[in-house]
Amino acid sequence: MQHLLSVDDMKESFIFDLWSKASDQKDGFSDVLKNKILTNLFYEPSTRTSSSFYSAMVRQGGSVIPINNVKFSSAIKGESLEDTIITMGTMSDCIVLRHPEIGSVDKAAKVSSVPIINAGDGEGEHPTQTLLDGFTIYYNHKKNIDNLRITMVGDLKNGRTVKSLVKLLSRYSGNYFNFVSPKDLRFPQDSIPKKSFETDKIENVIADTDVLYVTRVQTERGSDHEYSLSTEQLNLLPKNSIVMHPLPRVNEIPRDFDNDPRAKYFDQMIYGLWCRMVLLEGIMS
Ligand code: NCD
Q: Is the pLDDT of residue 76 over 90?
């Protein structure tokens, strides 16, 4: 069975094959997932990820059981995650799981009769976000994801998207990371890549950046900073750089930057749909 719990589960050939198929999905509607059912099991809020999986499924002729509000599921009656997973495995062909506890997806995979896709486990990982983040870089940077200067800003301690993306990008030679955060929201020191630099001042690194990856402060995980980049700061970025954000954005990037050609954060959502279409087809058809 093909679970997708971590970036570690994705080999290089799998990723590049998925990306090469993803750009063919542009106007895609098909019935390759006809008679297939996906469970979207979300114990944490989601707009993009859950809708993206939903749309990817429906565009390929499949159906979705959306459990987006566990308040109305048996979880509220005290049912364990494991029992819920066994239940949904009898009703569907694959389960997309988002859960506030790190490692919850491993517990789920142990008992599941169908593939589990990790859509975010606490401050752990978010591998399908990495598929679309990596695709965004690949698609906008001459089909390459190496020899880049990547600047990551925000809550690097609690954000799961940065951890998964760093895992992927540090596989490729020549990638160099700048981590910009307040001291108490630093990237976990035990997994910091060798080729990296840490600072709390964006001005130290913004002009030496190919990819700026901005994240939100994860208030739901106890972080309590506020920050925003100004248009003046963003304009220090090189002309051919790109600006990414997994979204939701709070105040990190001013709206007047949205029409700048370097802003790719809304494109990322489209890429996510394409990548998830290919992923679901690969897992279920
Ligand atoms: C991210 C997440 O849930 O980790 N959102 C997303 O899936 N696009 C980022 C976040 O919530 O800050």
A: no
